[in-house]
Amino acid sequence: MHYEISGKGEDSIKNILDLDPVGAAGLMESLGEPAYRADQVMKWIWAGGVTSFEFMTNVSKALRSKLGLEYRIFHPRVSRAETSTDGTVKFLMTMDDEKVVETVLIPAGTHYTQCLSTQVGCPMGCRFCSTGKMGFERNLTCGEIAGQVVSAVRFLKDQGDPLAVSNLVIMGMGEPLLNWTEVQKALNIFRHAQALNFSRRRITLSTVGVRGRLMDFGRSNLALPAISLHAPDQSLRKSLMPGAAEYELGALMDDLKSYPLAPRERITMEYVMLKGVNDSPSQARDLVRLLSGLKCKINLLRYNPGEGAGFKCSSEESIAAFQDYLRSKDFTVMLRKSMGADIHAACGQLKARCSSES
Ligand code: SF4
Hints:
Blueprint: E1 14-15, H1 21-30, H2 36-47, H3 61-70, E2 71-72, E3 77-83, E4 89-94, E5 100-108, E6 111-115, E7 119-121, H4 130-134, E8 136-139, H5 142-159, E9 164-170, H6 180-191, E10 203-207, H7 213-220, E11 224-228, H8 234-240, H9 249-257, E12 267-273, H10 281-291, E13 296-302, H11 316-328, E14 333-337, E15 356-357
Parallel strand pairs: 1-2, 6-9, 9-10, 10-11, 11-12, 12-13, 13-14
Antiparallel strand pairs: 3-4, 4-5, 5-6, 7-8, 14-15
Bound molecules: iron/sulfur cluster (SF4).
C-alpha cells in the first residue's frame, strides 16, 4: 500500500508543503480518505503553521501515522533577520539543502507586504540587479515559496509584532514565470481558503515577461500582473536585460493588449530610473508611444546602487520631469520610495524590485 514504506532515508521523505490543494486532495484519495481530510491537513500546515503531524488533533491517529511515513513538514528556516530604520525586515531563509534566499517584509501602515523569492539566483542577468549577478542555482518548490510566508508570520508572532502580512508581491530573487509550475502551485496555496486565504487583488506577480508563460499566468487569474519594463525600446532593453530580449518588446506589448483583465484592472509597468540611461525626455516620449492603448499604470522606481553595478539613480529633477511628462499624457504614474536600503533589502540590492509607494 501507498503508506507501507519502511526504512526510508531522510532524503526520500517528501515535504508535505510541496503539495498544493490539488495534490493534497489526490493524496487523500490515494489513501482512501474522505476529501475533507485534505482541507484539514492544509489548514494545519498553512494557517496553523504546525511543524509535526502530531499536532493535527482533528485528524485520526492512523492517518497521522501514514502521513509521517511518507512526509515531513519543513518550512524554510529563518537564519538571519535584519530590521531597517524604516521598519523593513529582511530575512535570509535557508532551505532543506542549505540554499539560501532572501524575503522581505515591507511595512505599509497597518500591515506588511511580503516580497517573495521564487528561484535561488536568477538566469535573466539584468545588469542593474544584484540577483542577476549571482547567476542561477535552482528553482524553489511551491512549499519553499509559500513557506516563506509561514516562516515570516511565525517570526512576527515570536517578536510580538501585531501587524499581519496582508499583501504578497512575487518580486524577489528569480524570474517567477521561468518556474511557473511551482509558482502556480504556490499561488493555489496562497488563494485557497483553508491554506493562506489571500484574495487575488492582494497578490502581485512581477515578471520581465516570458513568452507563452505570460499568457498562461494571465489565464490562471491567480494574481495581478506587473511587468519589469525598464526601457522604452528593444535595443536598450536588450542591453539592460539580456535574458528578457528573446521576448521582443513589440510582441510583448501585443500580448499585453490582449491580457485578460477585469474591467477596472490595469497592468503595472515598472520602470527603474537610471541616470543617463533611460531617463531622457525623448525616452519619456518613446515610453508614451510604446504604452499607448495599453490598460496600464506606471511605477517609477528610484534605483538603489548594488555593489559594482555601474549605474546611478536619476536626479530628482529628471525623475520629476519624466513623471510630469507621463502624467501630461494621461498615464497614472506612481513614484515608489526605496525601503530597507540601509540593510540592502531595497530594490536592486538583493533582488531587484521590492518597493513601497511614496
Ligand atoms: S531583475 Fe528580476 S529577472 Fe532580472 S536578474 Fe533580477 S531577479 Fe532576475
